# Entry
Amino acid sequence: MDTGRALDADGPTEKCGVVGVSFAERDAALPLYYSLYALQHRGQESAGIVTHDGFQQHSHVAMGLVGDAFSEDDLDALNGPTGIGHVRYPTSGGLDSSCAQPFSVSFKSGSLGLSHNGNLVNAGELRSELENLGHAFTSDGDTEVIAHDLARNLLEADLVRAVKRTMGRIHGSYSLTIMHDDTVLGVRDPEGNRPLCIGKLDGGYILASESAAIDTMDGELVRDVRPGELVVLREGGSGFDSYQLVERENTAHCFFEHVYFARPDSVIDGTLVYEARRGLGRRLWQESGVDTDVVMPVPDSGRAFASGYAEAAEGVEFAEGLMKNRYVGRTFIMPTQDERERAVRLKLNPIRSTVEGRTVTLIDDSIVRGTTSNQLVDLLREAGAEEIHMRIGAPPIVAPCYMGIDMASREELIAADRSTEEIREQIGADSLAYLSIDAVAEVLGEVRDDLCLGCVTGEYPYDIEDEATDRDVDRPRIDDQGLPADD
Ligand code: SF4
# Structure
């Protein structure tokens, strides 16, 4: 998959992947397992599956990659034709097994399993309120807050109304797959910040963060879950019901899903990610193209951008000038500064004949801290490049993400308080240019108001403490009974 970073230490970290299935006769466990494999790039810290056999829930959640988290015996024990799954990288909540998902809980009117991708910005307020009502929490993650809130609402209301009440109380980004007893549902936040789609499989239906999971199962993408929509998979895998529970004038799709996070072979909100990246690359040439002997990508993140850029540049050589060692894991021992610097050589090696004595355009999708870019420029210079021009397929990242992406803090972001010229100087390139925000919106076929651009503008589509908003938005008002004011 083409979402790996040149050096993991420098990139934003993916959040989570969610999935849910309902079949007529097949067991859900293996399809969930394969789907999680397809979503592995969205989280490598833990993996979990919860199934329901019509009588009771079965759950297996473990730390590590999908391939390590489940044995054959674990999968055999996960009985039942319905289930949900999750891969996680810690976002809200600590890096420990108490935050691994799906989160499952039994309460008076049944059982509940919940997988969450995103991050709530008002989880603290809701947690305090629920604690005051006697709810005991076992983790510090926001998913448990959603689960408790939903469980509480299910005591008083039917499923659809209960979900609507919870949606009226939580504020932030969320794509959820939920299992209430043996019913599987999917919910996307009213701004549609995180992706979620519906697919048809042989004998059933699937909800997944990305369509690549549906492809893996030989299924057919039906459509994206709409922002603010609840989708309930029918029992017996015969179809699904849709409830548009919340409507907003504008969406706030995370543009970074297209630029960086999602698999290039996924279709998100109607756009094939690979084509979006190539389109961004073409625009990059139009906005800031520079004539050089060769155009090359930073592997693997810059590849689709570079191919679009080179195509638009017409006639320029497009070549791989940096080779990636795929077998270097996420961590390796780096005892000294010198060894740390060697890390880049462990991961990437220049192809001298492509680079030596030539002018080079190096294309990447983003610059976060700038350390990797700096090392890459050094590598190419050592390999004999005459000039190095960096082109970036996204705008400068100037602010952190509060919606579930580990983007680095403001202090760590190289563009937070530096001009493009200052960044160029710091990374040592001969020239540097980013793509404009308007170009991103245009290529993605969206108006700016329908995108989340928080990390590149510093203005967010949610009401976040001490941060500016780019639209008229307030946290939900809760009435005296703890219900949304407009319930
Ligand atoms: S702040 Fe950036 S990374 Fe976070 S949701 Fe918005 S666009 Fe995506």
The pocket of iron/sulfur cluster is lined by residues 193, 254-256, 401, 403, 405, 452-455 (CB under 6 Å). The first strand starts at residue 16 and ends at 23. The mean pLDDT is 90. DSSP finds 16 helices and 26 strands in the chain.
